[in-house]
Amino acid sequence: MINVLEIKVGSKLQLREGIVAEVVENMEDGMWLQVKYLEVPKNPGEIGAIELCHAQDIVKVSGAAEGV
Amino acid sequence: MPQNEFDKLVDIDKGFVSREIFVDSDVYKEELSKVFTRAWLMVGHESLIPNPGDFFTSRMGEESVILCRDKKGEIHVFLNSCRHRGMKVCRYESGNTSLFTCPYHSWTYTTDGKLQGVPLYKTLYDGVLDREANSLVSVAKLHNYKGSIWATWDKDAPDFLTYLGDAKIHLDQALDCRDGREGGSEVIGVHKWVFPANWKFAAENFLGDTYHNPSHRSVDLIGIGPSAAAGKKGRRDDELEKAQHVWISFPQGHGVHSALQPEANEYIESFMDNPILEEYFRHCFEERKKRLGENAKLLPFVGTIFPNTSYHGRQPRGLCAWHPHSPTSTEGWRFFLVDKDAPTEAKDYLRRYYMRYSGPAGMTEQDDMENWLYATAASTGTIARRYPFNYQQSMGAYTTDHQLGGQVSLQITEQIARGFYNRWASYMRNAGWDELLGASAQNRQAAE
Ligand code: FES
Ligand SMILES: [Fe+2]
Questions:
Q1: Is the CB of B119 under 6 A from ligand 1?
Q2: How many structural domains does chain B have?
Q3: Model ipTM value
Q4: What's the distance, CA B307 to chain centroid?
Q5: pTM of the model as a whole
Q6: What digits encode the pLDDT tens for the residues B346-358?
Q7: How many interface pairs between A and B have CB atoms less than 8 angstroms apart?
Q8: Is B98 within 8 Å of A17 when comparing Cβ atoms?
């Protein structure tokens, strides 16, 4: 299980539905991260969108934040 | 219940009100849907949520609502119920948050009520769930009146000041600074407790039921007021001892007991137990006189803004909400008020005095509650219900051409209670807003 409390701002995430996103804020409730969509295979129009991302939506943390 | 049933239950002309409206569960259910979904209700005070993200869970009728300040500083009131399966989104009494996450399936709302986070949204809901349309349910109208926050579920309700009508200047006496500046109050504490009485007993008590004064005799003899230790017994200082008391029924159902100081309008010694307070309040009194001139003569006692918000205007000073729980149970909330910029010593003193007087352990409040709850209990029986309450006091003893507006009485009167229940019956008949604001029957017919 991924502990979202430990995920730092700037980390890259692999999400469900093939979405790749970058963490912009950790809501620090153990559940939610604010992320920016970098890749949205099913709807590229959503690239750049800021969304809340739930712990269950995270497939894996693909890259740690640099210098954090 | 048929529409005209309510006129039978409330016979204003003869001065009788059926006990059923204080104990019957069908009447109570109708009240929740006809009164509490339409009237303007007081939900809190801005000083309870000073910073972005601050929230205070309140009530409107039986329902829980969230009073909160969003990230941009704007104030909102939302139904405290998730749009998914209705779970209570916020289970704390107050706090600060950036998100309201539902404990059940974690739907998550921002402080402006928007549904922002839905777990597995892309997998389970994409293209179907309209998040915008599933925001927290917001009240139809909201008004910040001198720091007190009011709301209504009725989009057709008049604006708050129209609703308040001529009762405004009386409520102002509780909300304005002691030295006459507008607004500037702060809540220094909230007491919440449940008592076994119908909510209308409390609302009616504060309309200006001065007749029950003898029930506080024991407190007066002990002396709990701010000059008691200095030898002036009583539950408060008699700052209105030279004033002309007025009891006013307003057409919207509100009622107040206020007082007009005589021409000279001199300071009456008060807060004699504490020289710092005595000096402070004397200063405030003189400043207020300079600032308001003639208008400074009006001083407050108590009042109720229809249906369930009451206030104490001076000693003590605060707002009350009488939240219905059941026909025979009410949750009382006391919001204790002080001037935000009052000296700390004054605030501390007042907090203690207010608690001595009001709230679940307040000596005066206990006297009142004992009456409300025994009256409720003794009115639930089959035989008891056959006999209406008597409201014949000071029938017709009022004038309608007083400068203060409404029906003004110069003697203790149940005219205010008659006005309150008359308006209550209008709500229960689903009357239009013209009648709810007090348009006379003839005007109504002419308009129809
Ligand atoms: S009830 Fe709130 S998320 Fe299901
Ligand atoms: Fe009382």
A1: no
A2: 2
A3: 0.91
A4: 8
A5: 0.95
A6: 999 999 999 999 9
A7: 43
A8: no
